[in-house]
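Researcher: We're teaching a course module on how sequence relates to structure. For the next exercise, students receive a sequence and then see the predicted structure as tokens, so they can try to spot secondary structure elements on their own. Here is the exercise chain.
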Amino acid sequence: MKNFFLGLALLMATVSVAQPSGGNSGTNSFSFIKYQKNFPRPSEAFAQKQDTLEKQFKAKGLVWPAKYMYIRSFKYDSELEVWVKNDLKDKFQLFKTYKVCALAGTLGPKRMEGDYQVPEGFYYINEFNPNSNYYLSLGINYPNASDRILSDSLRPGSAIYIHGSCVTVGCIPITDRQIGELYVLAAFSKSQGQDFIPVHIFPVRFDNEKSVNYLEKLTENNNRLKDFSERMENAFDYFEKYKQVPVILIKDNGQYIVNNAPPLRWYKMESAKEKRIIVPHRTRTITELATVVHEWPEFPGGGDAFLDYLKKLGKEVGEFLPKGMDKAFIKMEFIIDKDGVPVNFKVLNPPDNSIDLGEELIIRMEKMGTWKPAILNGKPVAKKMVQTIEVQK
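Model: And here is the predicted structure for the students to work with:
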């Protein structure tokens, strides 16, 4: 178990266990706020934001000011969430989601100075900067214990902030108005004793299917990044299940361990299914369907053009394959009506755990254009088609 002791500092950073210093009442508990008000920009932020924040808390049934605060940021989705609570045993409640207004680098952790990467991992606020070049800023403790093992030993990088002004070369920028709010919220939590305000930076929202598909495509040939992302997903899943910040430990190789993490689940895909807007499909009631014809329906451009279309289509929808599946042969049924319009699409063999693959195939195939219809006794007739499509990532 000695390899877990390296994570002690990180554990303190990620679990909201800081006890209020100086008690819950009296002047000492708000001395940090008094200190911040000595600076022009924080003083301006408190004057402009404190009253409206109190009203927003009241409207959401939250107790002002929040004693405990937790920040989650999602790089690909460009979002920053603020969660709050007032007692350790309480579950965190979402207060607000801010739009991250600029992004540098790509998905994956920061590993060296000058790589323009926004870090990914488990951090905490370690600095309140009242004189930032970007209005106000909150520093995070990059490099943490894991980063110091896995990043460039001489030049890992530093000076990572959440700040205003909507520009970045590796930080998390929001608007000046938003950083003013966030600065005030964090100052109140710190003033009540939360010395370690956790900031978890994820590559994607793991409950967003589009984001997960993008991440899986990015990591399919990179086992190291894939393993790192799965550790991040463990932490995301833990918080989603319990609404408590997970305990994060670090092995002696720098790898994160999420204590008591639930197994990686597809609950997010089911959630996406519930939220998905169902697109009306092109269906018709066809009373006469030819079983034998003199001329089969013809795709625009002919048979070779149809094969090229199917090959291209199979690659385009590969991102919708279920996790762990790189290829599938999907059998589609549809009807070419007597006016040449393809209708009544149906997936005959949908793969397990695939919510949107069949849906996406139908949506795209309905746009493939009007065919030359089947001919029987010199007249156009409706004809059923069954076509297998090779789908691959």
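Model: If you want an answer key for the exercise: The first helix runs from residue 8 to 14. Residues 277-392 form one domain.
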